[in-house]
Amino acid sequence: MDTIENHKPHIRQYPDANGFFGKFGGSYVNEELQREMKNIENAYNTICRSQNFIHELRHIRKHFQGRPTPVYYCKNLSDLIGGARIYLKREDLNHSGAHKLNHCMGEALLAKFMGKKKLIAETGAGQHGVALATAGAYFNIKTEIHMGEVDIAKEHPNVVRMKILGADVVSVTRGTKTLKDAVDSAFEAYLADPVNTIYCIGSVVGPHPFPMMVREFQRVVGIEAREQYQEMTGELPDHVIACCGGGSNAMGILSAFIEDPVRLHIVEPMGRGEKVGDNAASVKFGTEGIIHGFNSIVIKDEKGEPAPVYSCASGLDYPAVGPEHAFLVKEKKRYEAHTVTDIECIEAFFILSRLEGIIPALESAHAVAYAIKLAKERKSESILVNLSGRGDKDIDYVEQTWGEYMKKFPNYSLLEGIDCSGINIL
Ligand SMILES: *Cc1c(COP(=O)(O)O)cnc(C)c1O
């Protein structure tokens, strides 16, 4: 149907008034929570039109977060692969080391406007917890982070960071004592007092209005990157690539290029392999279903429940994707979804560290790995990668688990067929 509606850019057209992106999204929660989601939506719709709010967020981004983050041309890596030009949007240089602070500052600013007394969230590896604790400190709002006992033991540095920043870390001892139990625990704490607290979701997931709101807070990444890239090169990139857990960094950068003649790619973790429980490639292996209050693509077990998932990058360890990604991949066919294994991710981690002096987060290394594969095939084209975070958090794990890879460079499978003899790094 050729209606005016169809000519609106995607960003203006979606989500609809009920939070749907096609058949994906919505708000599948009980009545009590539905009321609170409506309050949050109304508050968001008010402040996003307020000049004060827009000014304050701009001020925060520039002076506190250090935005705009640069776009960087990877000359060494591009020269090595031989033709294709690889650029990085440096979200690793955003304050606190990843893109997550973009939506945490927005959510906390909204909480301040709503007069909330406490921010509540769950965290798996601690990245979302640290970003929210940072926002809580900035706005002087109490912050309560729920974290599984197992993850607390595993992710000690992030637990300490949250405590230094003044957050209360609640140890969750039920069930498997990991992320899913932390979500349940945080939700209960929120439902006990939804008037004075706000649940700050960590990606473009959850019931409406969160997927829309988190996207709007992350769009700054793509708006900056598109302008910076054009300023540097006079054109648009041929490809834009982002890793995808829930999908906030991907939505942030890709949203700016949806109307452009640019190929858009999301990269999911293939982990140890294709068996259920060994990966978190939701688009590849998932089917339509409801999870955490929204309809999307979900990896399920035999009973139809969300299945356990795995990736060496804990930020990608989620059995679904945000509803807008499900829509853009499955219904609109606007993106291509790819997978990268743990091993390819680790190789890309070392390649970027050694060739460019940039240690990427393991999540972001998935996007870099796919960029390298693509660059080998598309020698005359240009590729913009969202480097969602820095890898300082991952160095102990990489040394302990993948230490032998430190010696093997440059005989990596990702670089097969590439002449690495001129590289002087080992
Ligand atoms: C959390 C995290 C991700 C994954 O989250 P998305 O919502 O999919 O962006 C990716 N990269 C880094 C560095 C993260 O901390």
Describe the protein's topology.
Layout: H1 4-7, H2 10-13, E1 20-21, E2 24-25, H3 31-47, H4 51-64, E3 71-73, H5 75-81, E4 85-90, H6 100-113, E5 118-123, H7 127-139, E6 142-148, H8 149-154, H9 156-164, E7 168-172, H10 179-192, E8 197-199, H11 210-233, E9 239-243, H12 248-254, E10 263-271, H13 282-285, E11 287-291, E12 294-298, H14 323-331, E13 335-341, H15 342-356, H16 362-377, E14 382-387, H17 395-402, H18 405-408
Parallel strand pairs: 4-14, 5-6, 5-8, 6-7, 9-10, 9-14, 10-13
Antiparallel strand pairs: 1-2, 3-4, 11-12
Helix pairs in contact: 4-6, 6-7, 6-11, 7-9, 11-12, 15-16
Bound molecules: pyridoxal-5'-phosphate (PLP).
Named CATH topology of the largest domain: Rossmann fold
Biggest sheet, in brief?
Answer: 6 strands, mixed
CATH architecture of the largest domain: 3-Layer(aba) Sandwich
Per DSSP E runs of 2 or more residues, the count of β-strands stands at: 14
Which residues form runs of ≥5 with pLDDT under 50? none
Helix content: 40-55%
Number of domains: 2
Structure ligands: pyridoxal-5'-phosphate
Mean pLDDT: 95
Figure out the total of helices.
18
Radius of gyration: 21 Å
**Secondary-structure class:** alpha/beta
Classify the oligomer.
Answer: single chain
Q: What percent strand?
A: 15-25%
| Global geometry | globular
The CATH class of the largest domain is: Alpha Beta
End-to-end distance: 60 Å
